[in-house]
UniProtKB/TrEMBL annotation, chain A:
First-listed, main subcellular location of the protein, grouped into a coarse class: cytoplasm
Organism: Apiotrichum porosum
Name of protein: Proteasome subunit beta
Described purpose of this protein according to its UniProt entry: Component of the proteasome, a multicatalytic proteinase complex which is characterized by its ability to cleave peptides with Arg, Phe, Tyr, Leu, and Glu adjacent to the leaving group at neutral or slightly basic pH. The proteasome has an ATP-dependent proteolytic activity.
One Pfam family here: Proteasome
Lineage: Eukaryota, Fungi, Dikarya, Basidiomycota, Agaricomycotina
Automatic annotation (TrEMBL), chain B:
Protein localization: Cytoplasm; Nucleus
Natural source organism: Apiotrichum porosum
Keywords noted in UniProt: Cytoplasm, Nucleus, Proteasome
PROSITE patterns: PROTEASOME_BETA_1 (PS00854), PROTEASOME_BETA_2 (PS51476)
CC terms in the record's Gene Ontology section: cytoplasm; nucleus; proteasome core complex, beta-subunit complex
Function according to Swiss-Prot or TrEMBL: Non-catalytic component of the proteasome.
Name listed for the protein in its UniProt record: Proteasome subunit beta
Disordered: region residues: 21-42
A GO biological-process term: proteolysis involved in protein catabolic process
Family (UniProt): Belongs to the peptidase T1B family.
InterPro entries with a match to the protein in the record: Ntn_hydrolases_N, Proteasome_beta4, Proteasome_bsu_CS, Proteasome_sua/b, Proteasome_suB-type
Amino acid sequence: MALFAASAQQEAVAAPIQHRFDPYEDNGGTILSIAGADFSVIAGDTRQSQGYNIQTRYARKVWQLTDKVVLATNGFAADGANFVKKVKQRLEWYENAHQKQMSIKSIARMIQTMLYAKRFFPYYVYNILGGIEEDGTGAVYSFDPVGSYEREACRAAGAAQSLIQPFLDNQIYFRNQTFPADQPKPIPGNLPLGTVLGLVIDSFTSATERHIEVGDGLEMYVVMAKGRAVDDLTSKGALPEGVVVEELGPLGEGGGERTFLVRRTLKRD
Amino acid sequence: MNHHPAAWGQPLTAHQQFDMYSTNPMGMSAPRSAHSHGPVQNTQWPLVTGTSVIGIKYEGGVMLAADNLASYGSLARFRDIERLHALGTHTILGVAGDMSDFQYLKKELDGLLREEETLTLTDAHPPLSPNNLYTFLANLFYARRNKINPLWNACLVGGWDFKKDESFLGYVDLLGTTYTAPTLATGFGAHIAQPLLREAYEAKAGVDLEGRPGADGRLLTAEEAEAVIDDCMKVLYYRDARSINKYQVARVTKDGVSISESKSSETEWMYAEGLRGYGGQTQ
């Protein structure tokens, strides 16, 4: 045994020193999505970094796919951009073939197969898909880089996942909270929009304080179910100071769902 | 050189002749061992390299700068290389990294542009915009990294976008990573020049809602932009050991591309008697 160990060690030393090309990079940043009863919030910061360098203060990580679905990507930016490009292409083909936009659960399954198709040279991308399910409920689907996915009430991914997810577990899933005997634990995924946006903003401002790869700007996409009143987003004073709302027009014919882009700054240091 | 008696009188290969004094990375040759047999190896390293390229948007255009040196390891091998290359009438390409890959890129892009030009002669065919060329480059770089056979470069693309009536500035590198910003720098310039460029740009243009520089919309004038570019090239020459005091500045405006003659920075190498703030001085 000792003989084998010695030869193995020698081989390691004898191996040539090579400039091995590493095809991957981590471009930092964080994404987050929270589902409500009849809406879904999909958010991401806009910083793109490489090591200690900020490459740009504005790079998009959240993408509107259909009138009721938004995708957030995080990880290796080149893979993310090219993955989103392919997803959009597949959605366009689907729409041309079927004269309708793909539903969120079908997009989720499609993303799984697209990710797993590159199982042995993966897209180094963590995806979070948010939007409105066909039954009108808010939905969040989260993926790992090789396509494993599930539907959840909320998910954080990226550089500050370890900072934000425990906060979400407490605030969205009510973990480690005690409730009086006469008041049952609420069911996750039913918080009002104002509360959810508050949690998203607090998550990102806090992550900006404690993580160097998070900051610069925050983009929050809000997808509203058909027929839902939007005054809790658009009425005066509904949102904190410094937050700006813009409605994004429907991409297709529009089925009644409405998508809004909510923006604010994050610290730049 | 091989001095073994068995090698006497034998003709030398081109590489052996070139490798007389084993100056790094001249001593590097494809590793021959049990590990290097087997599948095709595309794995490579840059050999003749250019250092930083820097770029900044200004009122009515965009400005790029790069020095004229192509290094061979630490050897300042080629001292009059142009690393700024015009692509058509309203786009400029600045390249850092491997110079042979840059030459390949030039050939590929010039071929594409010539093909497009023939189409514009017979048809109402729009010319390739800076954004089109940038997307082409991004796809090319990403496709090559997917083959694990990268083009070992970091590029800046500057141009004038007639659709938006504003300047364009984008970055793409060997991994296919892309991003745009009002000021950009590759390599060592990302450490040394980018802070100076950002400071100058944001001092005038401010910062917008998404943390994007440029809220006030007042950009630097061409003269102010060239002053900060000149300053950056000087600091890079002082601090980057793979740089040379000879560089070119390119501008793209509505009216087209212009690349300057090579120029030098005024430098000061006197004994820094009065300098404070470094080393062990206590006052």
